């Protein structure tokens, strides 16, 4: 079974051939973030992939998984709690890093939104503010910014690490202001009035927290897509799910991939040693005795025999 019906969960269910796969979703509508994301990566729109994968796929919506056990998972829905049997893969997506994690101090006024809340408001036709600061530069924040620039007086992206698939120039062409640095302090009595960064003070009335981390709320071992590492490209999310499906279908003892470089699906077996690296183009990584320079973001590589390990070269 797959818990989560976002792009990676749907792609995994589609990739597992010859077995019946049940997909569960806590929200009322399947598809996750990419169901309404039309901002392209390399000409590909996530919403189109979601529509294609949902065709003919039954998803049980409105049920929340609250516990995993040996051989299954427990859910809570309108009709109460129930248990479903099967091998569990969590496709629960990303979460926003909190203000405490990010070291953002000061007041806690209205106008501070996690990315997913701001995204939901935008999809309902509402704006989160007139002058909006988005903290974090990745596909998900840029997609939100591309909508907000149409209805807001000012949109600023402040970031610590660059996107692996989008350039700053791309954001500037949309009319988004871009700065590099950290949010240090938020001020405002009833609503956000001022955000202090490393080098400036921004007069904004909304702050969107868009620095992301994988989300594994149930402590599952098998994770898909953004539940394991944040992947910005919809095509690469689909590819990552196919890698996981290949690993599961190949069988054999799973061995954890070690080292300082994110490598999805996090495990290999004797029969399947292909992993996707969570780095951008031009990164140098060590695979056993070999050093590889990546030619694209989220490149897939074959790990050599022996202890599975990927390190920064």
From TrEMBL:
Q: Give the highest taxon in the source lineage.
A: Archaea
Q: Does the keyword Oxidoreductase apply?
A: yes
Q: Does the keyword Oxidoreductase apply?
A: yes
Give one Pfam hit by family name. Answer: NAD_binding_8
Which one of the record's GO molecular function terms can you name? oxidoreductase activity
Which keywords describe this protein according to UniProt?
Answer: Oxidoreductase
The molecule here is called: Uncharacterized protein
């Amino acid at each position: 079974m797959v818990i989560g019906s976002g792009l990676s969960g749907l792609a995994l269910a589609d990739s597992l051939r010859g077995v019946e796969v049940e997909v569960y979703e806590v929200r009322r509508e399947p598809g996750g973030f990419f169901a309404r994301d039309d901002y392209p990566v390399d000409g590909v729109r996530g919403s189109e992939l979601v529509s294609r994968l949902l065709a003919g796929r039954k998803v049980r919506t409105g049920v929340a998984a609250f516990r995993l056990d040996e051989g299954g998972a427990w859910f809570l829905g309108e009709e109460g709690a129930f248990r479903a049997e099967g091998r569990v893969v969590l496709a629960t997506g990303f979460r926003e890093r909190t203000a405490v994690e990010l070291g953002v101090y000061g007041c806690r006024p209205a106008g501070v939104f996690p990315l997913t809340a701001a995204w939901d408001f935008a999809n309902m036709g509402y704006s989160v503010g007139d002058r909006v600061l988005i903290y974090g530069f990745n596909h998900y924040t840029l997609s939100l910014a591309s909508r907000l620039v149409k209805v807001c007086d000012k949109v600023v992206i402040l970031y610590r690490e660059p996107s692996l698939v989008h350039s700053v120039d791309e954001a500037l062409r949309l009319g988004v202001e871009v700065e590099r640095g950290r949010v240090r302090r938020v001020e405002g009595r009833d609503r956000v009035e001022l955000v202090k960064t490393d080098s400036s003070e921004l007069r904004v009335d909304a702050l969107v927290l868009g620095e992301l981390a994988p989300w594994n709320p149930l402590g599952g071992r098998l994770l898909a897509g953004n539940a394991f590492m944040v992947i910005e490209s919809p095509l690469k999310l689909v590819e990552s799910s196919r890698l996981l499906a290949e690993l599961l279908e190949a069988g054999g003892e799973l061995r954890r991939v070690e080292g300082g470089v994110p490598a999805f699906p996090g495990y290999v077996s004797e029969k399947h040693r292909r992993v996707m690296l969570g780095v951008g183009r031009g990164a140098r990584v060590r695979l056993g005795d070999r050093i590889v320079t990546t030619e694209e973001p989220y490149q897939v590589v074959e790990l050599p025999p022996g202890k599975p390990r990927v390190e920064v070269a």
